[in-house]
Amino acid sequence: QVQLVESGGGLVQAGASLRLSCVASGRPLYSYAMGWFRQAPGKEREFVASISRFGERVLYPDSVKGRFTISRDNAKNTVYLQMNSLKPEDTAEYYCAATYALTVATISESARYDYWGQGTQVTVSS
Q1: E strands of 1-126, at which residues?
Q2: pLDDT tens digits, residue range 91-120?
């Protein structure tokens, strides 16, 4: 089992950058493929990024591709989400998630993730 804690959210203006962090405790982070999701009020949870267990592969939806970068430091048990050129439509609660997976797997389906953090709020003003 693993526990996840996100941080780094905040209120920024459009065009700004933020870096979210997700620190894991419990089992070693390299056991898990990791993902970031977001959920805005009244909307369904949306996939944002995924990274394979050792970082060989990453996956993004078109809505964030080229602006967001997911990375991980297994030695620090931490996953990051660098968010650049933020837009008001990026406003949401952001969650990191973990799941057991094959070494090079990236996973976009939220139902396949076993562990979730409590979330961190990102608000982008226009």
Answers
A1: 2-7, 10-13, 18-26, 32-39, 46-51, 58-59, 68-73, 78-83, 92-100, 115-116, 120-125
A2: 999 999 999 987 788 899 999 999 999 999
